[in-house]
Amino acid sequence: MNAMAVPLTNYIALASVIFFTGVAGVLIRRNPLIMLMSIELMFNAANLLFVAFARAWVHNAGHIFVFLVITVAAAEAAIGLAIVVTVFRSSKNVDVDDVALMKG
Amino acid sequence: MIFFWVLAAILIVSAVWCITARKAVYSVVALLLNFAALAATYLTLNAEFLAVIQLIVYSGAILMLFVFVIALLSSGIAPFSVGPDRLPRIAYPALALVLIAVGFLTRALVHSAVVTPPATAGPSSLGPVGAAGVFGSVADFGTALFTTYLLPFEITALILMVAVIGVVLLAGDQAPYVATKKREEDVKREMREAILREGGQ
């Protein structure tokens, strides 16, 4: 096993910080576009962990998984933005707190 | 090692900039910086193919989609109206929660056995990146993707097709299943006229 120059724990800490920055973004923003971008941040933090662990294990399953996650993230972004556009078309307003169409 | 710290600083600063920017366009710029730094981080981790994919798919495709939607929503007659953020009210509780969560997660992971890799290396071998059969090279990645992981790869095609159909249904020109205000008023007016016609006969 080749030792990594940077310990794995550093990558874990970095990914945690990025992930929870994304969580905070979803919690505190009301602009749905920025909320979607925060979700992308969380995806990227998870991907960084996958790549770091793949490097530590010298096993490329992590790389494959990141590839699949990126595909799903692209689909998610496209559908999320389509929903934002649809909501904006119907109400001229994209404040997430005012969109209560499906409220029971 | 110093390269890691520089990249980590860029990643964290751009992430924080992304969620605190006043305008959505600035968030996109911050996210672009974040994705570029992440691609560089992937390169330091022997994932050359993923670094390229990160730049092409995220910075090229997904962020362009965001910019396009921002331009689309900002160019109408009515301005893109979003109320004030919840930032002042819950920023400090959220920050405290985030720090606690980061602390717990890092501590749990650092103390778990999962962080120490096994002594034996995986199926790939380390070496100069770029050579065939070496961990992280495009050849290694492609071989794994099209042999061991062929079925998941095929399923991503299905996922993308579902996404395309969903987007066309949701936001297409003649989206049939979307109840807009205008369409609702049209239906109501037609119903009123029909009732009036019935009453007049």
Protein described:
The complex is a heterodimer of chains A (104) and B (201). With 104 residues, chain A is mainly alpha-helical. Chain A has a single domain, classed as Helix Hairpins, CATH 1.10.287.3510. Chain A is built from three helices and no strands. Chain B has a domain at 149-201. Chain B contains seven helices and no strands. Chain B has helices at 2-20, 24-44, 48-74, 87-111, 138-146, 150-171, 181-200. In chain B, helix 1 packs antiparallel against helix 2 and helix 2 (24-44) packs antiparallel against helix 3. Chain B is an all-alpha fold. Classes of the chains: A mainly alpha (104), B mainly alpha (201). Chains A and B meet through helix 1, helix 2 and helix 3 of A and helix 1, helix 2, helix 3, helix 4 and helix 5 of B.
Largest beta-sheet details of chain B: none
Q: So what's the overall shape of chain A?
A: elongated
Low-confidence segments of chain B, ≥5 residues, pLDDT <50? none
Contiguous low-pLDDT stretches of chain A (5 residues minimum) are none
Radius of gyration of chain A: 18 Å
Give the helix tally of chain B.
Answer: 7
Shape category of chain B: extended
Assign the CATH topology of chain A.
Answer: Helix Hairpins
Question: N-to-C SSE series of chain B?
Answer: HHHHHHH
Percentage beta strand of chain A: under 5%
> Count of DSSP helices of chain A?
3
* Biggest protein-protein contact in the assembly: A-B, 75 and 94 residues
How many domains comprise the coordinates of chain A? 1
Helical content class of chain B: over 70%
| CATH class term of chain A | Mainly Alpha
Brief digest:
The complex is a heterodimer of chains A (104) and B (201). Chain A is an all-alpha fold and 104 residues long.
